[in-house]
Amino acid sequence: HQGDEYTTIEIDQPSLPEAHLAEVERIANEIIEADLPVSTVWVDESTIENYPLRRPPKVTGSIRLVVVGDAERSIDCAACGGVHVTRTGQIRLVRPITVESIRGNARISFMIGDRALADYRMKDTTVREIGALLSAKAGELVARVAAQDEKTATLEAGARRLKSQLHRLMAESLLAKAGVLDSASVISAAFTDQDKDLLRGLTEILVTSPGVLGCLTNRSGDSVQWSIGAGTGVEIDANRIRGELLPLIGGKGGGKPPIWQGVGTDPSGIEPFHAAFTRMAEDQE
Fold it and tell me: 199 Cβ partners below 8 Å, 6+ apart?
C-alpha cells in the first residue's frame, strides 16, 4: 500500500526478525545502487511462459509485465498496470521504519526516496540535539537516557512519599481543628491553587478516622475541586450533595461511600458550599 507517508507491505507470518529486516534493507539498496533497468513488455498466453513470473497474473489476454533487471541480472518480473521508474537508481533509498502485527501478519512500513532522506535528516538532527542536551555522543545516548529514566523514577518515588507524608500531616492538622457535633467531627476547609491530588489524598486519610465528616474545596482560577468524605459510623446523603451543595458552585461529580468528589465552575459559591455542608452535617445528627 502506497500511503502519504509510508509504503507498507504485509507478509504471511506474524513477525520478522530484526536481522532479516536488515538483510532486506541491504539487498533493496544494493539493487537501487546497481541502477538496473525497469522495463515493460506486453505478452499473451502464448508468450507469457517465456518470462520468470514471480506470481501468476490475475488477468488473461494481453498482459503488461514489469521486468526489473537485465539479461545479466534478473531481479523481478510481475504483471502490473501501475506507474514505475525506468531505472532502480531513481528510487534513491529504501528504509524500513516499523514492523507491526496486523491480523496475524507482519506489516512492514518503509520510507522510500526523498521521504527516506528527510526521515534520516530529521532523526540525525534529533540525535544531535539530544546528544547536546545530555552531553553525550550518539553511541552513548541509549545508556544515558536509561540512566536518566532511572534517576527520574527514583525522584518521582521520593516525591510521592513526601506528598503522602505532607497529606498525612495536613490531615492531622485538620482533625485537630475539627468541629465536634454529638457523634461526629466536622471538617470544612477551603484551599487555593493546591496540587490536584491534594483533596483526594486528604479525604482518603480523613475517612479512616471514625465519626469524621469532611468537606474540602480547592480553587484554581475559575474552577473548583470538591471532595466530601464520611468516616465509619456516620453517613452522607448523596442526594443532598447533588441537590443542595453542587448547584452553589456549578458543580458536578459523584462517588460512593466513603468519598464523593468532582469539580465546579463557580468559585463565588465556595463559602455557601461549606456553610451548606455544615448544616447538612448538623442535620445528620
Answer: 191, 216, 217, 218, 225, 226, 227, 261
